[in-house]
Amino acid sequence: MTKPCIICVAITGSVPTKESNPALPVTVEEQIESVHESFEAGATIAHCHVRDDEGKPTSDPERFARLKEGIETHCPGMIIQFSTGGRSGAGRERGGMLQLRPDMASLAVGSNNFPTRVYENPPNLIDWLAAEMIAHDVKPEIEAFDLSHIVQATRMQADGRLKGPLYVQFVMGVKNAMPADKSIFDFYIETLKRLAPDAAWCAAGIGASQLVLNEWCVEAGGHARTGFEDNVRLDRETLAPSNAALVRRAVDVCEKHGRPVADWRQAREILGLRQPAA
């Protein structure tokens, strides 16, 4: 298969801590360095969360602005994707950084269970986030935690709330949500192709499922996500030394299956993104 594979690195997330892996980048400076290492290793999308001075998740636009500036300076051309996830803020606070015009932002289009709580994404907030992304020319990455989220995203594209073509990420392996199940994964792909034939897709596997999903995605012609947000280990006994180490592992999977790794220009072309400012 000659189709280039886009590798996304989710560098920090909202859940991991320095206690779970001391290499987790928490400060903006640590995050910029980690993204740079990951970019050099082959990642072309940086999925970004920010933390406050106590290391807790926040949606602070000022921190996102500093992170964006640092990535643009040190990783020219890399695709910057902000998280609008629910652990970082409440209500419209979750989208307060979209005015910074990152290339992309995550968008969950429905609610589901997480390990200890409900991940709430009410319809009015989803519609507001989607409208903000259109207003600021930000391409959504649809985070599909459930089959219904794929269906809802295609409905939103059909009625103009989302611009196409869609980019959909299947999230699998979250406790109390969708497991990393190959039959379900295959049905996700089949359903997306049927409802949105022009859509591109990737998948995120949580914990030990990360490498499994990397294999499934690369083999099936999709794109891959890795990074500390989803998994902080190389294996049960070994902590990953860096996000870049996980990126290199995803690159190895691409080489195993004969897939070239997309550079940033190819990734932007595949996703229909604007070119970076000169």
Describe what you observe in this structure.
This protein is of the alpha/beta class and about 280 residues long. The protein has a single domain, classed as Aldolase class I (TIM Barrel), CATH 3.20.20. About 35% of the residues lie in helices and about 20% in strands. The strands form four sheets. An eight-stranded parallel barrel has the order 1-2-5-6-9-10-11-12, surrounded by eight helices. Strands 3-4 form a two-stranded antiparallel sheet. Strands 7-8 form a two-stranded antiparallel sheet. The mean pLDDT is about 95.
Keywords:
278 residues, alpha/beta, TIM Barrel, eight-stranded parallel barrel, two-stranded antiparallel ribbon, 14 strands, 18% strand
Brief overview:
The chain is built from eight helices and 14 strands. With 278 residues, it is α/β, with parallel strands linked by helices.
The succession of helices and strands, N to C, reads: EHEEEHEEEEHEHEHEHEEEHH
Poorly predicted parts:
none
Based on the coordinates given, report the CATH architecture: Alpha-Beta Barrel
Helix and strand content put the structural class at: alpha/beta
Which sequence of strands runs across the widest sheet? Answer: 1-2-5-6-9-10-11-12
CATH class: Alpha Beta
What is the residue-averaged pLDDT? 97
Overall, the morphology is globular
Count of the domains? 1
Number of H- or I-type helical stretches: 8
Helix content: 25-40%
The CATH topology: TIM Barrel
Task: Compute the separation of the termini in Å.
Answer: 33 Å
The proportion of residues in beta strands is 15-25%
Determine the CATH superfamily.
Answer: Aldolase class I
